[in-house]
Amino acid sequence: MIINSEYAIIKTPEEVEFKIHLASLPRRASAFLIDFLIILTFIWVVNTPMSAIFNIADGGGVVKALYVVLMAFISNFYFIFIEYFYHGKTLGKKMLKIKVIDSDALSLTFYQILIRNLMRSIDTLPFFYGTAVLAMFFGKNNRRLGDIVAGCLVICDEVAPMPKIKAILDDKYNSLREDPLLVARIREQTTAEEKQLLLQVAENYKVFESDAVLQIFEELAKYFKEKFQFSDDYIKNISDQKMIFNLINVLFKK
Amino acid sequence: MIIDLDKFVMKEKVYWRELEDLLKKINEAGKCKNFYEIQRLLYLYERASADFIKVANFSGNKELHEYLENLTMSAYAFIYSERKRKFSFRIMQWTFFDFPAVFRKNLRYFLIIVAVFLAGAIFAGIALGDNKYAKKAILPEQFYYHMQSPEKRVAREESEKRVLGMNEGSNFAAMLIQNNIKVSILAMALGITFGIGTIVIIFYNGVIFGLIVFDYLNAGQGLFLTAWLLPHGVVEIPAILIGGTAGLMIGHCLVKPKIARKNFFKRQSKDITFLIYGVVLLLIWAGIVEAFLSQHHKGVLSYEFKIMFGFFELMLFVLWLSWSRGIVNFIKKIFSVKRRTLDDYK
């Protein structure tokens, strides 16, 4: 028995290997339940007035026949079209932050989505997705039969943000923190724009040449010294750059 | 090699940001605007890939690793994916070009399925010839009305002069369409059992078909049978067999060792989609014919008309699958305005 893995590995032509976080069975099941409830609600909402109309209109004839056929395949339509137009996500999948992708991490084609969903007719056998659960347990990459045939993976859809700068936010000695009142004042009086500026400087200053870097920090230090009126005790014997870093440390680290 | 992570991040961040922005821009537009953008995208992607490998190999920073993985992967997906065309309903194209072409391409699977179906029918014929209990043993409950002897049924139905109304008829057609589509899709989906499930379901359908056919033939009701089955069976049976064809294609993908399974599936998915599209079209037609034509017997419609209709349908069907492109081009040629040449003005 193969224990189902948590990650799938994809290799690009550039020999780069990606590890993709696969969606687990409970997550997929709950996403499906949400979708299922949405479909049931939809059918109920549409069916109630329609059946009343058909009762009044003496059976309804051709329209009713069309309606019956359409409603029979509504769950297929839901999955196929919503997955196609929302790039592999249905509403339930979006809520649980999972999505369908191609097994090479390329974009999905309509054909894949169609076949993936038509295979539900066998994944649901013998009752409530029994085959699908078995396939996910014993197969590779957490795939149900539909995923295997269509060449898809269902993965966690969480976008990792760019990591923050660690060097400035470490716990080294910070002279500004000597005075709690000053810390409170700094946090209170700094505007959002100033914070943005400081962050950008901290992120990007190494791109510039050293002379330019000195100049930037000199100007910034001058501006903030005037603004907060630091007493000399706290900024004595430290460079402009260090002072700005201390300032950022105070602002962004509790 | 050990990298000074902070310095590394500071240095490379500009490029990552640029790649992020570029990808966002391109994804919104759906394409690159100019050659410079393409060049830049490729450069940034390669740079990010290189950074990703460095981080993955020489640093334990998980956040950065995940971030770069995400970024590189979305760039990779954009660069290597097929461009998505705008979705458009081209029903003429699908119906008259794509479906028949795909059908012809996969004709060998279809022939195997036809053979399986006929084998089922012949098996039923043999079983019925030997044993009078065979019919009762094999027929499922939903066909209970065939349990009576054919002569009785023919006599009863021929005396009936009732015509199915629009209301009743369309409901009956709806039920038939729904049921048949489900069976066809199941026959397709069962291909995942290495094609065995598909073959079983087709064989089983063949057995039922053969049972009824041979039962009526034994009772000497060949004319009634032909008039009853031909108008819709001519379309309905091939449609379900095409569903089986799709299943067999899936099964073949599974056992084919030479080509990577994944890629083979992907290549077949387009064909299977068109086959299913054709099946749905055919079954809708067959359901309508079955509800409004096939169930009316001697009292309402003459057998000659029904059989003629069946053969006419069969002819159109074969023409459609074998020569639709030629026909469409021919019609276009007839109706298109002749372009004037210089000779006309002389």
Could you walk me through the main structural features you see in this protein, from its secondary elements to its overall organization?
The complex is a heterodimer of chains A (254) and B (346). By secondary structure, chain A is mainly alpha-helical. Chain A folds into two domains: 2-156, no CATH class; 166-252, no CATH class. Chain A has 13 helices and four strands. Chain A has helices at 25-56, 61-72, 74-85, 91-95, 110-118, 120-123, 130-138, 145-150, 180-189, 192-204, 210-228, 232-235, 240-252; strands at residues 7-11, 17-21, 98-102, 152-156. Chain B is elongated, with a radius of gyration of 30 Å. The N and C termini of chain B lie far apart (85 Å). Chains A and B meet through strand 2, helix 2, helix 5 and helix 8 of A and helix 1, helix 2, helix 3, helix 8 and helix 11 of B.
Beta-strand percent range of chain A: 5-15%
Mean pLDDT of chain B: 82
Q: How large, in whole angstroms, is the Cα Rg of chain B?
A: 30 Å
The chain-level mean pLDDT of chain A equals: 82
Shape of chain A: elongated
